[in-house]
Write a structure and sequence with these properties.
The protein is an alpha/beta fold. The protein has helices spanning 32-37, 41-44, 70-83, 96-106, 125-135, 141-147, 193-204, and strands spanning 2-4, 10-16, 22-25, 50-53, 89-94, 110-116, 160-164, 178-180. The chain is 32% helix and 19% strand. A hairpin with a 5-residue loop joins strand 1 and strand 2. Residues 22-164 form the AB hydrolase-1 domain.
Length: 205
């Protein structure tokens, strides 16, 4: 399905109904299929419901030349939530998606959120380009421009749980409350069974 952003960009999303749907926000240079479907997250969330979205410039969504700031990407998610007829959701995000989820929470659309693969340090241009080189994909220069220097700012807007692998250099400064995902790195931690269990337990508490 598609929702239409304020600037006309088509935003692809997939949803499954449930008692308390979870919004899934993928990381830079990835998409919902690779990050959430292929790693078993959608199966894990069958009992709660979910909304998986491809951020602009990624996956099956449109690729405009601008609109990639964290604030604008969060507004895109509001459009998707409105299209899915959901007011407030729990959120699981990964890497860059955590910055977007943080901004979405400031807009009052998040109950609780689990941020994987991210700490407090800014998203540097060098880190984004390195991730792009490792993961491949389409040209994401506009997204790099919009996200470079972005970080989690201020106090957490809602209850939050951080999770990362012990070998994830991008999340080495992740604050408490924190769940270690064992000897995993930035690129394989998302498939961790412990990650899924921790998220579901946090949302149920």
């Amino acid at each position: 399905m598609y929702a239409t952003a304020e600037d006309g960009t088509k935003l692809w999303y997939e949803s499954a109904s449930g008692p308390r749907p979870v919004l899934l926000v993928h990381g830079f240079a990835s998409d919902s299929r690779r990050m959430w479907t292929d790693t078993g997250w959608l199966r894990a969330l069958e009992g709660t419901g979910y909304v998986a979205v491809d951020l602009r410039g990624h996956g099956q969504s449109g690729r405009p030349s601008d609109g990639y700031t964290p604030e604008n990407l969060a507004r895109d998610l509001v459009v998707v939530l409105d299209a899915a007829e959901l007011s407030v959701v729990d959120v699981v995000s990964y890497s860059m998606g955590g910055i977007v989820a943080w901004e979405l929470a400031k807009l009052g659309r998040v109950r609780r959120m689990v941020l994987g693969g991210i700490g407090r340090r800014p998203a540097s241009r060098e880190d984004l380009l390195r991730v792009k080189e490792l993961l491949g994909g389409d040209d994401l220069g506009a997204c790099v421009d919009g996200m470079a220097g972005a970080r989690l700012t201020g106090e957490a807007p809602v209850p939050v749980l951080f999770a990362a692998g012990e070998e994830d250099e991008f999340a080495a400064d992740a604050p408490e409350p924190f769940v270690s995902l064992g000897k995993r790195n930035h690129f394989n931690a998302v498939s961790s069974r412990l990650f899924k269990q921790a998220a579901l337990e946090f949302f149920g508490s």
